[in-house]
Amino acid sequence: MTRCQKNLLGLTLAVLLSPLPAAADGYQTPPPELAALVDAPRTPQQSLSPQQNIVLQISRPGLPSIADVAQPELRLAGLRLNPKMRAYSQFNFGNGLSLLDIASGKSRQVSGLPARPRIADHHWAPDGKHVALSLWGDKGVELWLLDVATARAHRLGDFHLNASTGSGLAWMGDKLLVKILPARQGPAPAASGSPSGPNIQESQGGKLSQTRTYPDLLKTPYDADLLDYQLSGQLALADLNGKIHPIGSPDRFLSVQPSPNGQYLLATKLQRPYSTLVPLIRFPQRIEVLDLNGRSVRVVTQRPLLERMPSGNDAVETGPRDVGWREDAPATLFWAEAQDGGDPGVPAKTRDALFLQAAPFQKPPFKLQELASRFAGIQWGRDDLALVSEYWWKTREIKIWRVRPGEANGAAELLNQRSSEDRYADPGMPTMVVSRNGRSLLQTSPDGNSLYLLGEGASPEGDRPFIDKLDLTSKQTTRLWRSQAPWYEQPLAVLDTQRVLLSREQTETPPNLYLKTLGEQDGLRQLTFFQHPTPQLKGVQKQQLRYKRADGVDLTATLYLPPGYEAKRDGPLPMLMWAYPAEFKSADAAGQVTDSPYRFNRVGYWGPEAMLARGYAVLDDPSMPIIGAGKQEPNDSYLPQLKMDAQAAVDEVVRLGVADRDRIAIGGHSYGAFMTANLLAHTRLFRAGIARSGAYNRTLTPFGFQSEERNFWQAKDVYQTMSPFNYADQIKDALLLIHGEADNNPGTFPIQSERLYQALQGLGGTVRLAMLPAESHGYRARESILHMLWEEDRWLDQYVKHAKPRETP
User: Fold this and answer.
1) How far is 602 from 347, CA to CA, in rounded Å?
2) Which of 387, 391, 462, 743 has the most other CB atoms within 10 Å of its CB?
3) What are the E-state strand segments in 228-384?
4) Is pLDDT above 70 for 16?
């Protein structure tokens, strides 16, 4: 026998004797107690009417099947589209509707829907008499109308919507602005059987540009033509009888917003040339005002292709951006515009300016305000009242101003200034109401002198949501109400000076809606009666932990223990820790308490709590702060801080007697997966790790990741040191890698997990890689979720639950 024959025989025997790849086994099902979590009933989605008297409840079915998730999908310029539906890919639909009357507490089931409806979107009419619905039908996205008085729905017209960038539905009085498929568009362009030539990319040089790694980019001219076809839509007005009145000609509309008086449309249209380097949101855009015949009245901006942007998280484009309507005026445009070239590295006293321009758009724009940092949003109220937010990422400073948009010489007044990281100082968000023409406006007290603020109420004792009343003259707040232990109550809407709509829950009681009368001791009336979705796990124990890491930084975590567990009687349990690091500019902010000990113990399939059903203790969201005070960057000391965070968490659960050092696993998703691999590479604190959809080699994300502003060439040591791939030879404990094959998140390409697996496999490490077909960054199909739980349960059982103490070196 020749050497070649011997080698061939050896290879054949190796193939025959080696186990089949894991993928050949197909989808697996976890133990029944885990599968039950996947199929637990889901709480309906709830939507309050403009008059705040009715709640639309949208029931939700179980998870979609892999057959649904794996249907043909176009991936074009950062979009994921269902080509048959001409809609953005969607898998979470409503399957039923009911109307809850707040005053009486009575609920009516909506009739007239198809047998198995797929409700994708809904829009209340300003008068609250109708709800527009978009439903996925057999041939496309349909427009439906719900009559609130009769609680009956019916299809409106026989056309189909183009929902590639959203349904685009908007009420204009008693008509609906819609974006429908063009009548004579024809079939989609066909791909050529053979390439017409190479696909070329070229750069002529220029300034430093920060372009992150994006998925689903255009690659060929055919991709660009297909994108044009998918986005092409015809604007029209649909009356309540389904009759269509076309507006102008078809175009590639990204968004269309009617003016408050219904006389104009603010349209954003996609323009050529396209790019193979950046997604659609950075393609050229034409933003213009149209009349109801589709004629251009005012071109606000002709934005160029944004392949090159200044570096930094505070960088923005030049020219008008965040263009919209002033919500409390008939037809007044609003936009922000950078005054520093959009470059945060350029010294400037004024970073942004805000402009107004009223119809008929003949007079020059009026400068409403100059800002020392970046515009972060505006809430409209009336001529003498709007709230402007500005923010600067580098310092985390946020400011909120009161401005007077209707007064030419009205000076801005500072209402609040704080660090965005300081949850304890968060004043809350102002409540909003819907005007007669359907616009969202600031809600004021009956005398018009005060605003209502709803806040999470973060405090050293946990989150305690509140309602405050802010006097606009004195700028002082009065507390009207605050959530009280042992309940977690969250205000949803201030109905009037006395009544509030609340969501109320307890550790063993799921969230339900209540009507609260302020000032009354027993002024509560329950409106919904949702039951515990997983009654088999009643009795789960929850405790908010507070501890310190070695350098004195305060840390927190939420500890969950299985029902009936007693530490003194049962001893330490195997434990799963699940975390996600966060960057901070101050140790004080990093040490603030998060969450509430009184929230409902929702044990779902996505987080670590699922393992409570298998007898594990769970430490959820232990603080993993990475602090960069002053001019220091957090990632310059990422590893030392991460190790201190993890060591402190392990020490605390061991001190409490609920876990032992030899049976603790660490896990996380996305940036938490990156954390997991780093902790296994640089510590021996954990017996195993579960890393889902992570990134492990930062040279593959060379222009920034997470909150890191510097590129690889500006901070080579940071990128190299933070990459666990570079230290794969130091990973000595078992690592389970799970990744969606169609991951759509910038930076977490599937190759990240594939290459780390190959490295560990080649180095003799204990590792398993499960690639989930057709799944994105978050997994959606029932089969995928069941298999994910099967993988995690099997891994923890093999390497953690029955782990023996490590041998002392």
Assistant:
1) 49
2) 743
3) 232-238, 244-258, 265-270, 285-290, 296-303, 320-325, 332-338, 352-358, 366-371, 374-382
4) no
pLDDT at 11: 34
Asked whether the CA dihedral 435, 439, 440, 441 is positive or negative, the reply is negative
Tell me, yes or no, if the pTM score tops 0.70. yes
Structure token pair of residue 516: 């609260």
User: What are the Cα distances from residue 768, in Å, to 6, 16, 729?
Assistant: 31, 21, 16
Residue 753, SS3 per DSSP: helix
In terms of Cα–Cα distance, which of 788, 679, 791, 675 is closest to 740?
788
CA distance 533 to 600: 11
Joined tokens for residue 627: 């602090």
Collapse the DSSP code of 495 into the 3-class scheme (helix H, G, I; strand E, B; otherwise coil) and give the result: coil
Q: Which of 298, 293, 292, 300 is nearest to 262 (CA)?
A: 292
**The pairing of beta strand 734-740 with beta strand 767-772:** parallel
Specify the residue for token string 């902790």.
679
| Cα angle 34, 38, 44; round to 5 | 145
In the numeric block, the tokens 């969450």 are attached to 595
Identify whether the C-beta of residue 576 lies closer than 8 Å to the C-beta of residue 621: no
Q: How far apart are CA 694 and CA 705, in angstroms?
A: 12
Q: Which residues pair with 524 in a beta bridge?
A: 516
Distance from C-alpha of 492 to C-alpha of 470, rounded to nearest angstrom = 17
Residues designated catalytic: 670, 743, 777
Q: What is the pLDDT of residues 369-417, one digit of tens each?
A: 999 999 999 999 999 999 999 999 999 999 999 999 998 788 899 999 9
Q: Count the alpha carbons within 13 Å of 726 in the hemisphere toward its beta carbon.
A: 12
The string of pLDDT tens digits covering residues 740-795 is: 999 999 999 999 999 999 999 999 999 999 999 999 999 999 999 999 999 999 99
b vs e for 621-634, b when ≥16 Cβ sit within 10 Å of the residue's Cβ? bbbbbbbbeeeebb
Q: d(Cα 165, Cα 185) in Å, to the nearest integer?
A: 18
Closest of 540, 531, 669 to residue 613, by C-alpha: 540
Beta-bridged to residue 87, according to DSSP, are 82, 163
Q: How far is the first Cα of the chain from the last one, in angstroms, to the nearest whole number? A: 48
CA dist 255 and 246 (Å) reads 17
CB atoms closer than 10 angstroms to residue 277: 16
For residue range 495-523, list pLDDT tens digits in order. 999 999 999 999 999 999 999 999 888 88
Amino acid at 426: D
pLDDT of residue 25: 77
CB atoms < 10 A from the CB of 14, how many? 9
Other C-beta atoms within 10 Å of 128: how many?
Answer: 16
Contacts of 717 (CB under 8 A, 6+ apart): none
Using CA atoms, how far apart are residues 487 and 97, in angstroms rounded to an integer?
Answer: 29
**Cβ count near 553 (within 10 Å):** 19
Cβ count within 10 A of residue 685 = 18
Task: Respond yes or no on whether the N-terminal peptide bond of residue 486 is cis (omega within 30° of 0).
Answer: yes
Nearest Cα to Cα of residue 327 among 248, 406, 274: 406
What is the Cα–Cα distance from 393 to 479, expressed in whole angstroms? 30
Question: How, if at all, do strands 617-620 and 541-548 pair?
Answer: unpaired
Q: What is the pLDDT of residues 332-381, one digit of tens each?
A: 999 999 999 999 999 999 999 999 999 999 999 999 999 999 999 999 99
Full strand arrangement of the beta sheet holding 352-358: 320-325, 332-338, 352-358, 366-371
Q: What span, in angstroms and rounded, lies between the C-alpha atoms of 98 and 79?
A: 32
Residue written as token pair 């998140």:
745
For residue 136, give Cα distances in angstroms to 73, 201, 471. 15, 38, 47
Q: Which two tokens stand for residue 429?
A: 């968000």
**What burial class does residue 31 get, using C-beta atoms within 10 Å of its C-beta: 0-12 exposed, 13-18 middle, 19+ buried?**
middle
